């Protein structure tokens, strides 16, 4: 069980965080439509590879922080504001869907694996996101920074991210038609998750 729960949590958090139409998702879909499914999968694999390293770095940084009590409280306070801000964003601001265009990005037929790595490296948001996510889960008692849970969580994040990429690759037509419905409903789910994280972090800060 020490590896199953972190795996499931990592998968679930990543799936919800990546499911909204974004640059990597839309690019993978466009490559699938304009070139081939195999090229798109290669692109998604490259992006997921970078996600692995980004998540691992984030969790290692979170473990380092958790071992230094003098900065944990400060970061927990920052985390409360971040998760609260994200909750407000997903509940109120992100109600109008924005269609992302990947046409200008899909150029040439260079190695799609490395192209996926490049685009994923340009996205630095996963690092701070998974720092606070892992710290929040650890504060709630659902995660520990031991070796097995860490690798399980990281693998779960990679699998969750790749699953979304693959979903866009194979079902882009249907997803495109239901983008507004998807975004309006998934925002509620993500907003609920970030609200939960903010509450758990606040409780931990007050009574921990």
UniProtKB/TrEMBL annotation:
Tagged with keyword rRNA processing: no
Membrane-spanning parts: 6-28, 40-65, 71-92, 113-142, 148-169, 181-207
Top-level taxon: Bacteria
Keyword entries, A-Z: Membrane, Transmembrane, Transmembrane helix
Lineage: Bacteria, Pseudomonadati, Bacteroidota, Flavobacteriia, Flavobacteriales
Name assigned to this protein: Lysine transporter LysE
Sections of the chain in a coiled coil: none
């Amino acid at each position: 069980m020490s590896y199953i729960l972190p795996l499931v949590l990592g998968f679930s958090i990543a799936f919800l965080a990546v499911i909204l139409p974004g640059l990597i998702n839309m690019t993978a879909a466009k490559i699938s439509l304009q070139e081939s499914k195999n090229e798109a999968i290669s692109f998604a694999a490259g992006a997921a590879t970078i996600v692995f390293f980004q998540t691992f770095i984030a969790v290692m940084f979170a473990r380092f922080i958790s071992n230094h009590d003098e900065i944990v409280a400060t970061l927990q306070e920052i985390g409360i504001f971040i998760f609260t801000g994200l909750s407000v964003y997903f509940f109120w601001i992100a109600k109008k869907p924005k269609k992302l265009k990947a046409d200008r990005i899909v150029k040439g037929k260079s190695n799609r694996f490395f192209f996926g790595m490049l685009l994923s490296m340009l996205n630095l948001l996963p690092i701070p996101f998974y720092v606070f996510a892992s710290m929040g889960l650890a504060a709630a008692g659902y995660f520990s920074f031991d070796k097995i849970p860490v690798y399980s969580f990281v693998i779960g994040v990679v699998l969750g991210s790749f699953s979304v990429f693959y979903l866009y690759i194979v079902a882009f037509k249907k997803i495109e038609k239901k983008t507004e419905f998807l975004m309006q409903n998934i925002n509620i789910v993500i907003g609920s998750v970030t609200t939960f994280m903010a509450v758990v972090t606040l409780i931990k800060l007050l009574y921990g």
